[in-house]
Amino acid sequence: MDSLQEQIEKFKQDYYQENGGKKSSIQIFSKHRQKVDMAQQVTQNFDLQQLLDKTVYNITGTNRVFIDYTIFKLYANESNYVILINHLISVYDYCIETYGTFDVHINLATFSTTAAQRYSKIIELFNNRFDTDDETVYIQRLNHMYIYNPPSVLEMIYTVLKPMLNPKIKTKSIIVPKSESSSKITDVHSIA
Hints:
Distance between the termini: 30 Å
Largest sheet: 5 strands, mixed
Number of helices: 11
Structural class: alpha/beta
Order of helices and strands: HHHEEHHEHHHEHHEH
CATH superfamily of the largest domain: CRAL-TRIO lipid binding domain
Helix content: 55-70%
Radius of gyration: 17 Å
Shape: globular
Strand content: 5-15%
């Protein structure tokens, strides 16, 4: 049987074929709308809990939380943002309760500036869930945040914003170059 991601990719191909094609000459706004509609269709046609579990999960036997943008982008839309955030927080809470601390590993492969615009609402909602106090339990218990496959734009933005970041997050964040990301992601999933 095909993996969930392969099933969704086939669903996407069929969707785009029926709706003007992914690379059609439709205007940018229409492409954005098409991506949002496709994400809603995936949410309606696939098990949401299964999607969540493939997007944000604890690596069994470790305090590692893995967040996979390559799955997230297939279905994330405003109708499920709160559910996604609640799932993420529950995984963080599990790690804190089980291990006392946690490490976050984020795969940003294929992330783009248009994606940053498209998902700005969920980032805002996520940030609003926490106090502005820099001593929240999540910051206290976070060991490190690793960012894999960063888009080149992210590296530039991060360099500019780094002086303005909460000093605790700044010292805990590690951007892994694209050239090393694949092997490091494999390592993260390996249980020592």
